[in-house]
Amino acid sequence: MIVDNLYILVFKINKLNDFLFCDMLQNLYLVITDKIVISFRLRKQLETHSTCRLHQMLAEFLTQTHEHQEALDQFSIALR
């Protein structure tokens, strides 16, 4: 009886961990997808309206995504 209850408890903990891990992966996927969409939208907007503010926003975003060289390029364009 105690062994059966222990097995059920361990099974439930494993299921909870699987659920939390899947939830974590889903959240990570959403964050990555959001960053791709933001980058795409900013770049698309820059094709039609190249303003220093948009270049600065893209540069700040690229800095947060650790794309430092491209961020520096965008900052230099913003300063022109």
What attributes characterize this protein structure?
80 residues, mainly alpha, Serine Threonine Protein Phosphatase 5, Tetratricopeptide repeat, 3 helices, 0% strand
Provide an overview of this structure:
Helices cover 90% and strands 0% of the residues. The protein has a single domain, classed as Serine Threonine Protein Phosphatase 5, Tetratricopeptide repeat (Alpha Horseshoe). It has three helices and no strands. It has helices at residues 2-48, 52-64, 68-79. The protein is elongated. With 80 residues, it is mainly α. The mean pLDDT is 78.
Q: What is the topology?
A:
Elements: H1 2-48, H2 52-64, H3 68-79
According to CATH, the fold-level topology is: Serine Threonine Protein Phosphatase 5, Tetratricopeptide repeat
Detail the poorly predicted runs. none
Per DSSP, the total helix count is 3
* Largest sheet data: none
Order of helix and strand elements from N to C terminus: HHH
Q: What is the number of domains?
A: 1
Structural classification: mainly alpha
Number of strands: 0
Radius of gyration based on Cα positions: 22 Å
Question: What characteristic shape results from the CA principal axes?
Answer: elongated
Give the terminus-to-terminus CA distance.
Answer: 76 Å
Strand content: under 5%
The CATH class is Mainly Alpha
* Mean pLDDT rating: 78
